[in-house]
């Protein structure tokens, strides 16, 4: 099985080139990654045209630029996080738009590991499942609903490589393997890519301190990139500071309102869910002291301890969110693509029946909400299997009576629109984003 030329996690490219040229290639890669969120389809068309053998050198240069950026990221944790997230998004687009059937199978094996992936027929014979009626039913159901011209296929992945699919019963679990159509694995595939890229960044640290000219160029790019105005997400600004929007859960996106409601009802959330909600509460204006008191007072785990004891234990994690402990990093709220693969998204992680109930009841007491029909909700849920951000976009009008013309790609994007429609954002606070909002919403 072959790997596509754009796939950067191949053997290290030949780096016997002029250092100044390498610097240009790295900045070219930065510009490509920065343009991607603004217009991903256009970026793919411009930089990765279809079926052109003359692109071999261009792809080689892209991989060289990506390789140097890994060296740069090895010196700066914030740049590392940005690089992994940005390259993950590009991987997702290129896998979907610029990858043949054989190359997709190659990527599965490369990312999940040799011996951890089998095709349907191989699994059926190797695991002696030729007479498994459930497996045969899955095969016929897949082919009966498979659209004409689609490149989707059935594939089997060892359960150890896709833990969230196992825990959420996504696919058919048999003899330690998950059997499903290729589309179902895309979130896990992206996560595996990002994990591998992080490993490559860590390995890159060993390559520094060997060649003085390379070290100099890495240091120069790191300093310039760290100052770069677009290195932070467009949704990581301080626009919500002082707003105290934590007292207005009606502006929370579905993922956050679900976690918020669960914690309010039960007093418990698992660690990853606490982080996700904590990041969000911080960015919508909740101070570190307010968060400390909130988690202390609401969590059932704190019933038998004093606030001083809580400060010394669980309080460390909350201060860590604000960059006051540990590596002193001021964490941003993860964007939707990261939440879908690494945190909690109701459109990805809830069973369809539970999701339907949640969407039906979630905002019905909201003053502007319109009760969607079951058919409308099922249509939203169906779209979520292709892209959870589309589901959020389609669900938004039922809550606020306003239509969005772009996908929701970040929780703070939902909060920004909702706050505006709820009259919680004064005009001067929106001076930097009002033009975008006007273009993206139906006034």
Count of DSSP E strands?
Answer: 4
Task: Tell me the structural class.
Answer: mainly alpha
Would you list the SSEs in sequence order as H and E?
HHHHHEHHEHEEHHHHHHHHHHHHHH
Instruction: Report the helical percentage.
Output: 55-70%
Low-confidence stretches: 229-233, 427-443
- Strand order within the widest sheet? 1-2-4-3
Q: What is the 3D shape? A: globular
Distance between the termini: 51 Å
- The number of domains: 3
| Helix run count | 22
Strand content: under 5%
Integer average pLDDT: 81
Radius of gyration: 23 Å
For the sheet with most strands, the description reads: 4 strands, antiparallel
Notable features of this structure?
single chain; about 450 residues; mainly alpha; four-stranded antiparallel β-sheet; 22 helices; 4 strands; about 5% strand; globular; disordered C terminus
Give your account of this protein's structure.
With 443 residues, this protein is mainly α. It has three domains: 120 residues, no CATH class; 87 residues, no CATH class; 196 residues, no CATH class. It has a four-stranded antiparallel beta sheet, with helices on both faces. Strand 3 and strand 4 form a beta hairpin. The chain is globular. The C terminus is likely disordered.
């Amino acid at each position: 099985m072959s790997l596509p030329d754009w796939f950067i996690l191949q053997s290290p490219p030949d780096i016997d080139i002029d250092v100044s040229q390498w610097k240009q290639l790295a900045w070219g890669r930065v510009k490509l990654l920065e343009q991607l969120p603004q217009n991903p389809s256009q970026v793919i068309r411009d930089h990765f045209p279809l079926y052109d053998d003359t692109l071999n050198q261009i792809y080689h240069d892209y991989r060289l630029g990506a390789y140097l950026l890994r060296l740069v990221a090895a010196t700066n944790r914030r740049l590392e996080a940005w690089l992994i997230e940005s390259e993950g998004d590009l991987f997702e687009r290129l896998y979907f738009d610029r990858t043949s059937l054989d190359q997709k199978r190659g990527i599965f094996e490369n990312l999940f590991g040799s011996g951890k992936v089998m095709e349907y027929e191989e699994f059926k014979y190797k695991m002696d499942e030729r007479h498994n009626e459930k497996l045969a039913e899955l095969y016929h159901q897949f082919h009966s609903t498979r659209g004409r011209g689609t490149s989707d296929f059935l594939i089997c992945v060892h359960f150890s490589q896709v833990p969230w699919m196992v825990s959420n019963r996504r696919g058919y679990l048999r003899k330690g393997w998950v059997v499903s159509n290729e589309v179902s694995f895309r979130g896990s595939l992206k996560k595996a890519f990002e994990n591998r890229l992080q490993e490559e960044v860590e390995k890159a640290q060993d390559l520094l301190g060997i060649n003085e000219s390379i070290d100099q160029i890495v240091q120069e790019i790191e300093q310039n990139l760290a100052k770069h105005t677009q290195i932070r997400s467009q949704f990581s600004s301080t626009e919500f500071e002082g707003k105290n929007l934590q007292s207005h859960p009606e502006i929370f996106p579905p993922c956050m309102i679900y976690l918020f409601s669960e914690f309010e009802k039960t007093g418990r959330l698992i660690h990853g869910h606490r982080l996700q909600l904590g990041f969000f509460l911080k960015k919508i204006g909740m101070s570190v002291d307010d968060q400390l008191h909130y988690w202390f007072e609401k969590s059932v785990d704190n019933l038998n301890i004093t606030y001083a004891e809580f400060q010394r234990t669980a309080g460390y994690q909350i201060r860590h969110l604000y960059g006051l402990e540990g590596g002193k990093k001021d964490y941003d709220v993860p964007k939707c693509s990261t939440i879908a693969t690494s945190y909690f998204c109701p459109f990805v992680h809830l069973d369809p029946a539970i999701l339907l109930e949640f969407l039906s009841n979630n905002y019905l007491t909201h003053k502007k909400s319109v009760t969607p029909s079951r058919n409308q909700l099922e249509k939203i849920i169906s779209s979520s299997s292709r892209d959870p951000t589309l589901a959020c976009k389609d669900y938004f009008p039922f809550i606020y009576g306003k239509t969005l013309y772009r996908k929701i790609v970040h929780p703070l994007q939902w909060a920004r629109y909702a706050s505006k429609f709820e009259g919680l954002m004064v005009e001067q606070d929106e001076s930097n984003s009002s033009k975008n909002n006007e273009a993206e919403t139906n006034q």
